[in-house]
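Below is the data:
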Amino acid sequence: MAELLRSLQDSQLVARFQRRCGLFPAREDNPQENRAASPLERATQVSEVAHLPTNPQAYVERHVVKNYFYYYLFRFSAALGQEVFYITFLPFTHWNIDPYLSRRLVMIWVLVMYIGQVAKDILKWPRPSSPPVVKLEKRVVAEYGMPSTHAMAATAISFTLLISTMDRYQYPFALGLAMAVVFSTLVCLSRLYTGMHTVLDVLGGVLITALLIALTYPAWTLIDSLESASPVFPVCVIVVPFFLCYNYPVSDYYTPTRADTTTIVAAGAGVALGFWINHFFQLVSKPTPPLPVIQSIPALTTDMLVLGLTKFMVGLVLILLVRQLVQNLSLQVLFSWFKVVTRNKEARRRLEIEVPYKFVTYTSVGICATTFVPMLHRFLGLL
C-alpha cells in the first residue's frame, strides 16, 4: 500500500499524462530542435515567473502545446473548478432555478472547501516537482497540494446537485449521473494537465468529498431547517465561522489559502444569515411544500433566457457595488484601528486585518445575494 501511494504521488506520472496530452516543456538548450518547431508551436511558448523566493517551486516554465484540443479542454475545465465560477454559479441558481438547491449547494461547498484548505496547510504535501512537470498556473502554485480542492469542489457540487434534484425534478437519472461524472472527471484531469496536483492529491480530494457527503447526507434536512430554528442562529452562524477563519493553521510562508478560505466561509455564512433574515422578517412568501415531481423540465425559451440573464446582471451589479463599498469601509476602519498606512498591500495580509475585512465583506455579499437582490428583482418586476 505504501508503495502504491508513493507511485501515485510521483511527479513523473503527472509529466507522462501531460506528454500524452501534447504538453511539453520548451527546450532552450537545443536551438536546432527549437528551430524545427512549427510557428504555431513557437507562438505558444510562454514564460511567466512568480517571484516567490520562499517557495522555489513557485514558477511557471516555458512550454510548447502540440495538442490544442486537450489544451483548451483542460484549461476550460480548470476554470470550472475556480472559486469565481462557483461564486457566480451559486447565485445564478438561487435567482433563476431554485433557492432550495442553492442553499444545499452552498452548505456542502463551504464544508468541503474549508476541510480541504485546512488539510493542505496541516499536511503540507508539496505540489508536483517542476521539472519534469510543466506548471500552467502561478496564483495557487505557492499553496500545498494535498488534497485537490478543485477536485473536491467539482465532486461536491455535481453530486450534491444530483442528489438534491433526483427526488425533486423528473429527468433521466442516468443522464444526471453521467453529467456529474463527466464534470467532476474533467476538473480532476485538468489539475493533472495544468501540473498543479499529483494523482494522489486528486484521488484524495474525491474520496474525502465522497466521505463527507455520505456522512452529512442524513443531516441535510435538519441543517436545512436551522435557518428558522432560533433567534440565536445569526450569532452562531457568524461567531463560529469567524473563529474557524481567524484560527486557520499557520503556514510556513504567505499563500492565498487563508484569504480564499475566509472568502468562501464568509460567503456561506452570509447566505445562511440571508435565508434566516428572509424567514424571520417574512421578506419572502411563506415556504411552499416540496415541489411535486414534474413530468419534464421546462424547455428553455428566449423569454426565459433573457429574463434569467437580466436577473443575473442586475444581481451581479448590486453585489459588486456592495462588495466594493463594504471592503473599502472595513479596510479604512481596520487601518485606522491598527494605525496602518492606507493602501499598504502588505498590511492587508496581516491576520488581524485580512480575516476581518474578508469576512465582513463576503458575509455582506452573501446577505445581499439572498435577501436584497431578490427584493430588487421584485421591485423591478423581474419575479
